[in-house]
Amino acid sequence: MKSGIKTFLLGIKLSVAENMAYRTSFFISLFIMFIFELLVPMVSILIYRSGVSFPGWTLYEVLLIQGAFILAKGIAFPLFIGMFFNVMWSVRSGTFDVVLLRPRSVLFTMLVTSFNVIDFGKIFSGVLFLSIALSHLPVPSLSQWILFIMLIIISILLIVSFILLMCVYAIRFVGSNRVLGLIDPISQFGLYPKTIFVKPIRTITTNVIPVALIGFYPASVLLGKDTQDLILSALTAVCFITVSLILWSRSIRKYTSAGG
Q1: Greater confidence, 177 or 167?
Q2: Which residue in 109, 160, 212, 251 is deepest, having the highest Cβ count within 10 Å?
Q3: Alpha-carbon Rg of the chain, whole angstroms?
């Protein structure tokens, strides 16, 4: 356990050191990532300033949803999104075979060699809009904060399950990275109140691909409103995570080398 944690922290340290070799480029990239994540909340502010609104939701409640979404994404992406690119290029080049020979699990090995610290800029955007929203809303209780943290953790694991499924795709369909374009469009539904969508979309984003759990539900528990189907959505997310791990394990067992 201690060895695993040390290896994990060493992976982050090496990633930081690698990026700090070109400090100006690193800080510019970090700033650009921070600014990029501000776009959707800024659009929401412009919408409300123009006199239009999402029915039943104030501006700061919407910003809370978007802040929670960006925070979960900002934690998950730096730590895990690099796995997809790592797996894809390793499979293409044939070096994935070497990873299979190492004493550590393949998943852990790919994780500790895939950190992308530039994506940490997303966290600052998430914290910024959470802070702005909460400063204009009633103070949540301790129990609400605890539930919020639990849902953020589940949200992060759900994003990781998406990444794992992308990795499975990269292993089974060598040379294709088109699946990368699916994760953002699908997850974007979590940026907005669930109630603004038609019923079929609400059902899909809650009970089939529970992306509402990434932003909408964590914010809802802090607001104390509209948590209907929360438990079902969380259970669906757990199933999603479990299935992704099973598919990953099967793909590793069936992998027979594909380097070119």
Answers
A1: 167
A2: 212
A3: 19
The two structure tokens encoding residue 182: 């699916």
Copy the structure tokens of residue 249: 């394990």
Instruction: State the DSSP code for 83.
Output: H
Q: Is 254 helix (H, G, I), strand (E, B) or coil?
A: helix
Phi-psi region of 51 (alpha: psi -120 to 50; beta: other; left: phi over 0): left
Is 156's pLDDT higher than 70? yes
User: Quick check: helix, strand or coil at residue 102?
Assistant: coil
User: What is the Cα–Cα distance from 172 to 156, expressed in whole angstroms?
Assistant: 25
The DSSP call for residue 224 is: T
> 160: Cβ–Cβ under 8 A, 6 or more apart, which residues?
76, 80, 241, 244
Digit-coded pLDDT (tens) for 134-147: 999 988 899 999 99
pTM for the model: 0.87
Instruction: Report, as an integer, the average pLDDT of 224-234.
Output: 84
> How many angstroms separate the CA atoms of 3 and 240, rounded?
29
* Main-chain phi, psi angles of 135, to 5 degrees: -70, -15
Q: What is the DSSP string of 13-33?
A: HHHHHHHHTTHHHHHHHHHHH
**Are the beta carbons of 207 and 236 closer than 8 angstroms?**
yes
Domain locations along the chain: 2-254
Are 92 and 260 a contacting pair, CB within 8 Å? yes
Tokens of 15: 């990633």
Rounded to the nearest integer, the mean pLDDT of the chain is 83
Instruction: Give the tokens for residue 156.
Output: 């992060």
Q: Tens digits of per-residue pLDDT, 182-203? A: 677 777 888 888 888 888 888 8
